[in-house]
């Protein structure tokens, strides 16, 4: 079954970038170990240092319960929200199942060339 993913965009106040960055790094270290958490990545925009993105991947939508029950969760919003220049944007996704091969492109020569760029 494909994973359930949350993507959160945050925009730090200019004088709070380091505080937001540190809290996100800490949160990733905590949440990455939660039950049914597949990954919890934090990123900072390479051009706009105030812009951050969190990508949370869970085994199922219901897996969020472990995240929300983690005592650390109660520390997050109270710390981060006052450091932001705008509201957090939260997007929810169901990942597409890519276990079965899909071939939209029909050119066999293309697929031979593609294989040369792959590592498996």
Automatic annotation (TrEMBL):
Domain of life: Eukaryota
Name listed for the protein in its UniProt record: Uncharacterized protein
């Amino acid at each position: 079954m494909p994973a359930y993913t949350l993507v959160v965009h945050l925009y730090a106040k200019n004088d709070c970038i380091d505080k937001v960055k540190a809290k996100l790094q800490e949160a990733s270290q905590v949440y990455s170990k939660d039950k049914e958490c597949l990954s919890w990545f934090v990123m900072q925009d390479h051009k706009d240092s105030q812009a951050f993105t969190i990508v949370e991947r869970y085994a199922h939508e219901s897996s969020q319960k472990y995240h929300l029950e983690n005592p650390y969760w109660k520390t997050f919003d109270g710390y981060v929200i006052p450091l932001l220049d705008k509201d957090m944007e939260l997007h929810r996704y169901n990942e597409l199942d890519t276990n079965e091969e899909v071939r939209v492109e029909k050119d066999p020569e293309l697929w031979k060339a593609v294989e040369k760029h792959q590592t498996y």
